[in-house]
Design a protein that fits this description.
This protein is mainly α and 203 residues long. It has 8 helices and 2 strands. 58% of the residues lie in helices and 9% in strands. Strands 1-2 form a two-stranded antiparallel sheet.
Amino acid sequence: MLVEPNVRPSPAALAVLSLLQAGPLHPYGMQRLIKLWGKDQVVNVGQRANLYKTIKRLNEAGLIAVRQTERDQQYPERTVYELTDRGRQAGLEWLAQMLATPRNEFPEFPAALSFAMLMDPAQLQAVFEQRAAVLREELAALEAGLAANSATLPRVTLIEDEYRRAMVTAELSWLAGLADDLRTGALTWNDDLAELAKASMPD
Protein backbone atom coordinates (compact mmCIF):
# COMPACT_ATOMS: atom_id res chain seq x y z
CA MET A 1 0.00 0.00 0.00
CA LEU A 2 1.13 3.52 -0.79
CA VAL A 3 2.23 5.32 2.38
CA GLU A 4 2.72 9.08 2.31
CA PRO A 5 4.47 11.15 5.00
CA ASN A 6 2.45 13.57 7.14
CA VAL A 7 -0.90 12.46 5.75
CA ARG A 8 -3.22 9.65 6.72
CA PRO A 9 -6.49 8.42 5.28
CA SER A 10 -9.52 10.33 6.52
CA PRO A 11 -13.01 11.00 5.14
CA ALA A 12 -12.06 14.61 4.35
CA ALA A 13 -8.82 13.63 2.60
CA LEU A 14 -10.62 10.93 0.62
CA ALA A 15 -13.29 13.46 -0.39
CA VAL A 16 -10.66 15.90 -1.70
CA LEU A 17 -8.83 13.24 -3.71
CA SER A 18 -12.12 11.87 -5.05
CA LEU A 19 -13.46 15.28 -6.12
CA LEU A 20 -10.21 16.08 -7.92
CA GLN A 21 -10.61 12.90 -9.97
CA ALA A 22 -13.11 14.90 -12.04
CA GLY A 23 -10.81 17.88 -12.54
CA PRO A 24 -9.03 20.81 -10.84
CA LEU A 25 -10.92 22.70 -8.11
CA HIS A 26 -10.33 25.42 -5.55
CA PRO A 27 -11.22 24.73 -1.88
CA TYR A 28 -14.47 26.69 -1.99
CA GLY A 29 -15.54 24.67 -5.02
CA MET A 30 -14.73 21.43 -3.20
CA GLN A 31 -16.76 22.44 -0.14
CA ARG A 32 -19.65 23.59 -2.34
CA LEU A 33 -19.74 20.31 -4.28
CA ILE A 34 -19.60 18.24 -1.09
CA LYS A 35 -22.62 20.12 0.26
CA LEU A 36 -24.44 20.19 -3.10
CA TRP A 37 -24.13 16.42 -3.45
CA GLY A 38 -25.16 15.83 0.17
CA LYS A 39 -21.78 14.36 1.08
CA ASP A 40 -21.57 16.75 4.05
CA GLN A 41 -23.85 14.24 5.82
CA VAL A 42 -20.95 11.78 5.89
CA VAL A 43 -17.90 14.06 5.53
CA ASN A 44 -17.37 16.85 8.05
CA VAL A 45 -16.52 19.98 6.07
CA GLY A 46 -18.60 22.42 8.10
CA GLN A 47 -15.46 24.31 9.07
CA ARG A 48 -13.59 25.44 5.97
CA ALA A 49 -10.42 25.78 8.06
CA ASN A 50 -10.37 22.00 8.54
CA LEU A 51 -10.73 21.51 4.80
CA TYR A 52 -7.81 23.88 4.18
CA LYS A 53 -5.67 21.93 6.67
CA THR A 54 -6.47 18.70 4.85
CA ILE A 55 -5.63 20.27 1.49
CA LYS A 56 -2.35 21.61 2.89
CA ARG A 57 -1.34 18.15 4.13
CA LEU A 58 -2.24 16.52 0.81
CA ASN A 59 -0.28 19.19 -1.08
CA GLU A 60 2.80 18.79 1.15
CA ALA A 61 2.64 15.02 0.65
CA GLY A 62 2.60 15.42 -3.12
CA LEU A 63 -0.86 13.89 -3.53
CA ILE A 64 -2.26 17.11 -4.98
CA ALA A 65 -0.54 20.09 -6.58
CA VAL A 66 -1.27 23.75 -7.27
CA ARG A 67 -2.61 24.11 -10.80
CA GLN A 68 -3.05 27.89 -10.87
CA THR A 69 -4.16 30.91 -8.87
CA GLU A 70 -7.38 32.59 -9.93
CA ARG A 71 -7.92 36.32 -9.47
CA ASP A 72 -11.35 37.88 -9.77
CA GLN A 73 -12.52 41.30 -8.59
CA GLN A 74 -15.62 39.74 -7.01
CA TYR A 75 -13.76 37.09 -5.01
CA PRO A 76 -10.54 36.77 -3.00
CA GLU A 77 -7.59 35.10 -4.68
CA ARG A 78 -8.26 31.37 -5.10
CA THR A 79 -5.75 28.57 -5.45
CA VAL A 80 -6.82 25.78 -7.79
CA TYR A 81 -5.53 22.28 -7.04
CA GLU A 82 -5.19 19.21 -9.23
CA LEU A 83 -4.61 15.54 -8.53
CA THR A 84 -1.14 14.07 -9.00
CA ASP A 85 -0.51 10.51 -10.17
CA ARG A 86 0.49 9.59 -6.60
CA GLY A 87 -2.70 11.18 -5.32
CA ARG A 88 -4.83 9.23 -7.80
CA GLN A 89 -3.20 5.98 -6.65
CA ALA A 90 -3.48 6.86 -2.96
CA GLY A 91 -7.14 7.87 -3.30
CA LEU A 92 -8.10 4.55 -4.84
CA GLU A 93 -6.09 2.60 -2.26
CA TRP A 94 -7.67 4.53 0.62
CA LEU A 95 -11.11 3.98 -0.88
CA ALA A 96 -10.55 0.23 -1.10
CA GLN A 97 -9.15 0.13 2.44
CA MET A 98 -12.08 2.07 3.94
CA LEU A 99 -14.64 -0.06 2.12
CA ALA A 100 -13.03 -3.38 2.97
CA THR A 101 -11.87 -2.90 6.55
CA PRO A 102 -14.25 -2.29 9.49
CA ARG A 103 -12.79 0.24 11.91
CA ASN A 104 -13.67 1.21 15.44
CA GLU A 105 -14.20 4.95 15.10
CA PHE A 106 -15.22 5.54 18.75
CA PRO A 107 -18.53 7.33 18.13
CA GLU A 108 -20.29 9.05 21.04
CA PHE A 109 -23.35 6.82 21.37
CA PRO A 110 -21.61 3.53 22.23
CA ALA A 111 -19.36 5.42 24.65
CA ALA A 112 -22.43 6.85 26.39
CA LEU A 113 -24.12 3.43 26.42
CA SER A 114 -21.17 2.02 28.33
CA PHE A 115 -22.08 4.28 31.26
CA ALA A 116 -25.87 4.08 30.94
CA MET A 117 -26.09 2.48 34.39
CA LEU A 118 -25.52 5.93 35.90
CA MET A 119 -29.17 6.66 35.06
CA ASP A 120 -32.10 4.85 36.55
CA PRO A 121 -34.26 2.75 34.16
CA ALA A 122 -36.99 5.41 33.85
CA GLN A 123 -34.47 8.13 32.95
CA LEU A 124 -32.79 5.89 30.42
CA GLN A 125 -36.10 4.98 28.85
CA ALA A 126 -36.95 8.68 28.50
CA VAL A 127 -33.70 9.60 26.75
CA PHE A 128 -34.00 6.58 24.44
CA GLU A 129 -37.48 7.77 23.47
CA GLN A 130 -36.03 11.21 22.68
CA ARG A 131 -33.34 9.60 20.54
CA ALA A 132 -35.87 7.44 18.73
CA ALA A 133 -37.96 10.52 17.88
CA VAL A 134 -34.92 12.21 16.31
CA LEU A 135 -34.03 9.03 14.42
CA ARG A 136 -37.57 8.73 13.03
CA GLU A 137 -37.24 12.26 11.62
CA GLU A 138 -33.84 11.39 10.15
CA LEU A 139 -35.27 8.22 8.60
CA ALA A 140 -38.15 10.16 7.05
CA ALA A 141 -35.69 12.66 5.56
CA LEU A 142 -33.53 9.85 4.18
CA GLU A 143 -36.56 8.13 2.66
CA ALA A 144 -37.70 11.38 1.07
CA GLY A 145 -34.24 12.12 -0.31
CA LEU A 146 -33.84 8.66 -1.77
CA ALA A 147 -37.30 8.82 -3.35
CA ALA A 148 -36.61 12.24 -4.85
CA ASN A 149 -33.15 11.41 -6.21
CA SER A 150 -33.47 7.77 -7.29
CA ALA A 151 -35.32 8.73 -10.46
CA THR A 152 -32.57 11.04 -11.71
CA LEU A 153 -29.31 9.79 -10.15
CA PRO A 154 -27.53 6.45 -10.55
CA ARG A 155 -28.04 4.22 -7.52
CA VAL A 156 -24.29 4.04 -6.86
CA THR A 157 -24.29 7.76 -5.98
CA LEU A 158 -26.91 7.15 -3.29
CA ILE A 159 -25.60 4.04 -1.56
CA GLU A 160 -24.26 5.96 1.44
CA ASP A 161 -27.85 7.10 2.06
CA GLU A 162 -29.05 3.51 1.67
CA TYR A 163 -26.47 2.51 4.29
CA ARG A 164 -27.55 5.28 6.65
CA ARG A 165 -31.18 4.26 6.19
CA ALA A 166 -30.33 0.66 7.05
CA MET A 167 -28.36 1.73 10.14
CA VAL A 168 -31.10 4.07 11.38
CA THR A 169 -33.77 1.41 10.79
CA ALA A 170 -31.74 -1.18 12.71
CA GLU A 171 -31.08 1.24 15.58
CA LEU A 172 -34.76 2.15 15.85
CA SER A 173 -35.66 -1.53 16.06
CA TRP A 174 -33.03 -2.11 18.76
CA LEU A 175 -34.13 0.96 20.74
CA ALA A 176 -37.77 -0.20 20.64
CA GLY A 177 -36.79 -3.58 22.07
CA LEU A 178 -34.64 -1.97 24.73
CA ALA A 179 -37.43 0.44 25.69
CA ASP A 180 -39.81 -2.53 26.09
CA ASP A 181 -37.31 -4.30 28.36
CA LEU A 182 -36.90 -1.16 30.47
CA ARG A 183 -40.65 -0.70 30.67
CA THR A 184 -41.33 -4.30 31.77
CA GLY A 185 -38.35 -4.54 34.08
CA ALA A 186 -36.62 -7.21 31.99
CA LEU A 187 -33.66 -4.82 31.96
CA THR A 188 -32.82 -3.31 35.32
CA TRP A 189 -29.79 -2.83 37.56
CA ASN A 190 -28.55 -1.84 40.97
CA ASP A 191 -27.71 1.86 41.03
CA ASP A 192 -24.80 1.31 43.41
CA LEU A 193 -21.96 1.95 40.97
CA ALA A 194 -19.29 1.44 43.64
CA GLU A 195 -20.54 -2.08 44.30
CA LEU A 196 -20.71 -2.79 40.56
CA ALA A 197 -17.12 -1.60 40.08
CA LYS A 198 -15.94 -3.62 43.07
CA ALA A 199 -17.61 -6.78 41.77
CA SER A 200 -15.92 -6.45 38.37
CA MET A 201 -12.41 -5.84 39.70
CA PRO A 202 -10.02 -8.79 39.87
CA ASP A 203 -8.94 -9.92 43.35
